[in-house]
Amino acid sequence: MFRELRRQDRKMDNNEIIEVLKKCQYGVLSTVGIDGYAYGVPLGYVYLNNSIYFHCATVGHKLDNIRNNDKVSFCIVGEVDPVPEKFTTKYKSVILFGKASEVNDDEKYSALIAILEKYAGQYMDKGKEYIKNAGEKVKVIKISIDYIEGKTNR
């Protein structure tokens, strides 16, 4: 169903993939619109329980697309280091494919706490209050991973 990496010599092992997922700050979520066009949007995320979670507003383009087609991809690029004299770039990247769905209640709260820890860990008390006040004004989306692959050029 999913294509194999062409350059098998650059394939990352699972530990390296998880390291990139945990370390990087942003990724690009790609969805398909009702019009058939791809839509890619950069966003912050957290890797938790073998899934990707992100928060967003309660309405918008990506949510419309996910409601229409829950199949998504998510791409993360880390440790980019151009090597101009060799006409190449050293990098680590991860791409995953999965199904996106809204989560609620305990799972939503756990994801928001994990996002808070990742991006604003020094403000946990204020952040928890912010989460409490945000309530229904924020959605949390989970990407259940169907396939994941990492590629590196060291």
From TrEMBL:
Transmembrane segments: none
Taxonomic superkingdom: Bacteria
InterPro entries named in the record: Pyridox_Oxase-rel, Split_barrel_FMN-bd
Pfam families noted in UniProt: Pyridox_ox_2
PANTHER family the UniProt entry points to: 5-NITROIMIDAZOLE ANTIBIOTICS RESISTANCE PROTEIN, NIMA-FAMILY-RELATED PROTEIN-RELATED, FLAVIN-NUCLEOTIDE-BINDING PROTEIN
Protein name, entry field: MFS transporter
Gene source species: Thermoanaerobacterium thermosaccharolyticum
